[in-house]
Design goal:
This is Phytoene dehydrogenase. Residues 10-453 form the Amine oxidase domain. The chain is of the alpha/beta class. The chain has three domains: 2-41 and 211-296 and 407-456, FAD/NAD(P)-binding domain, CATH 3.50.50; 109-199, no CATH class; 303-399, Protoporphyrinogen oxidase, mitochondrial, domain 2 (Polyamine Oxidase, Chain A, domain 2), CATH 3.90.660. 33% of the residues lie in helices and 19% in strands. A seven-stranded mixed beta sheet has the order 8-7-16-17-18-15-19. It has a five-stranded parallel beta sheet with strand order 10-2-1-14-20, covered by helices on one side. A hairpin with a 5-residue loop joins strand 11 (237-242) and strand 12 (248-253). The structure holds flavin-adenine dinucleotide (FAD).
Length: 479
């Protein structure tokens, strides 16, 4: 069957990949002139890459890792030491680490937490451990039920001192959803802790060895096109055209540069767009349906990604860093962490600015100068003295609506991949799947959509059907 997919982010491309495996013919229609959506990247006139976001791959991403394997590009993941490194605001320029020893889970995580004495006191560690007991006993159902609380409310409910937020969880919340602990749903943190503590390598991190567009999206496109599928850039979906019975008649594509609009028809249709543009484009009759009305409960959160090139090396650390700065979230010196961006003499810091709601409308110059002020605290040796590090150039990428904002109560608004419209499916990180709004969630959602289509429309002799890769089975104890 011909399946039209609007959106060439990871969800749309993963859906197309698994549809070709199932013997179908996907045609991916992407609005922009670049692949990847929220992992899109661009080369500047000097040949340097800059990206929509600093992206980390975790050991706890089974479907993503399986995809790398299936594309035969596993060597592109640059795995780092199993540790989490936090800046110490009270001692500028120093770091505190959670080192995971080579022990089975959850022992390695427990030892990592117990051995760190910079950030949490022993009473705080004990109270946090006790607070997690209901989650350990009741498992995933408990994690889902906690969606009614923010993380801070959950800490209070469990009698865990709120200082643990200041020390660890503000940084973790910002890295997971670009918002703080008072806003984020407890389910998000508990889900991440669950994976990190249950799987030996769950929190182990990898950087891609180059730009996601070239090093991950392009191999997906090659895979799809080699098997009869198609990926078209500059093909924005303008309108979903309906049959009298409310099913999809075609995708109306906006003609660019004076070209006429085009009606694109297929046997089945998939939206792989983010939830915000999908809401805008929903046909009027569908807007009355409860399934689609629920999308109103989801909205993308703003975030900003900065790239700063300096005249010298600021650090040799080859890892992700949690800044613990009020302005910034995580950052990395990509000249150390990423093979294609490597430079032995100069640093290129890639930094995520979050929460970004008060910054998204500001000029790039204002954003960069506020960031440099923060770097004076993160790298006092290089910015304080008489010969401060010189900024050679920068790129600022703003995403006013990125992943859906995971405030309490959002879980019930996340739609399934199968819709009430017989020939229309959804995919995307915001759709219901067991991972958060993440690359893993996007890839899994694409797989789930392809699987739903393949089950409803079996093809004789497909090359192989998508198989879901689940985390290792656990008992009730999930956190
Ligand atoms: C700053 C930042 C940092 C991040 N860090 C991480 C991280 O470290 N680890 C992690 O796992 N995840 C991270 N993420 C999240 C991750 O990038 C996303 O969850 C994932 O890429 C979303 O994929 P998607 O396919 O669901 O959506 P998208 O990537 O948004 O793809 C949707 C596609 O639809 C296209 N589209 C929109 N409208 C139309 C239209 N009308 N017609 C045709 N096409 C259209 C868009 O152009 C886009 O290409 C980060 C995100 C950001 C922004």
């Amino acid at each position: 069957m011909r399946v039209a997919i609007a959106g060439a982010g990871l969800a749309g491309l993963s859906c197309a990949k698994y549809l070709t495996d199932a013997g179908h013919t996907p045609i991916v229609l992407e609005r922009r002139d670049v692949l990847g959506g929220k992992v899109a990247a661009w080369k500047d006139s000097d040949g340097d890459w800059y990206e929509t976001g600093l992206h980390i791959f975790f050991g706890a991403y089974p479907n993503m890792l399986q995809l790398f394997k299936e594309l035969d590009i596993e060597d592109r993941l640059q795995w780092k030491e199993h540790t989490m490194i936090f800046n110490q605001p009270n001692a500028p320029g120093t770091y505190s680490r959670f080192d995971f020893p080579d022990l089975p889970a959850p022992l390695n995580g427990i030892v990592a937490i117990l051995r760190n004495n910079d950030m949490l006191t022993w009473p705080e560690k004990i109270k946090f451990g006790l607070g997690l007991i209901p989650a350990m006993i009741q498992g995933q159902k408990y994690v889902e039920d906690m969606d009614k609380y923010s993380w801070t409310e959950w800490l209070r409910k469990q009698n865990i001192p709120e200082r643990v937020n200041d020390e660890v969880f503000i940084a973790m919340c910002k890295s997971l959803n670009f918002i703080g602990p008072d806003e984020i749903s407890a389910t998000i943190l508990l889900t991440a802790l669950n994976r990190f503590l249950q799987e030996k390598n769950g929190s182990k991190m990898a950087f891609l060895d180059g730009s996601p567009t070239e090093r991950l999206c392009q191999p997906l496109v090659d895979y799809i096109t080699e098997r009869g599928g198609e990926v078209r850039l500059n093909a924005p979906l303008k309108e979903i055209l309906l049959n009298p019975d409310g099913t999809v008649k075609g995708f109306l594509l906006r003609g660019l540069n004076g070209a006429e609009d085009e009606v694109f028809t297929a046997d089945l249709y998939v939206s792989a767009m983010p939830v915000d543009p999908l809401k805008v484009i929903l046909p009027q009759p569908w807007q009355q349906m409860e399934f689609f009305q629920k999308l109103e409960g989801l909205e993308g959160v703003p975030v900003i990604n900065l790239h700063l090139w300096f005249d010298r090396k600021l650090t040799e650390i080859d890892h992700l860093l949690f800044s613990r700065s009020p302005l910034l979230s995580v950052y990395a010196d990509m000249s150390n962490t990423c093979r294609e961006y490597a430079n032995p003499d100069r640093s290129m810091l890639e930094l995520v600015l979050a929460p970004a709601k008060d910054w998204i409308a500001k000029s790039d110059e204002e954003i960069v100068s506020a960031t440099i002020a923060e770097l004076e605290k993160l790298f006092p040796d290089h910015f304080g003295g008489e010969n401060p590090a010189k900024l050679l150039k920068y790129h600022v990428v703003k995403t006013p609506r990125s992943v859906y904002k995971a405030t309490p109560g959002r879980q019930e608004y996340r739609p399934s991949q199968v819709t009430p419209i017989a020939n229309f499916y959804l995919t995307g990180d915001y759709t219901m799947q067991r991972y958060l709004a993440s690359m893993e969630g996007a890839v899994l959602s694409g797989k789930l959509t392809a699987q739903a289509i393949a089950e409803a429309n079996p093809v004789t002799n497909p090359s192989h059907l998508p198989t879901l890769t689940r985390p290792p089975a656990t008992n009730a104890a999930t956190v």
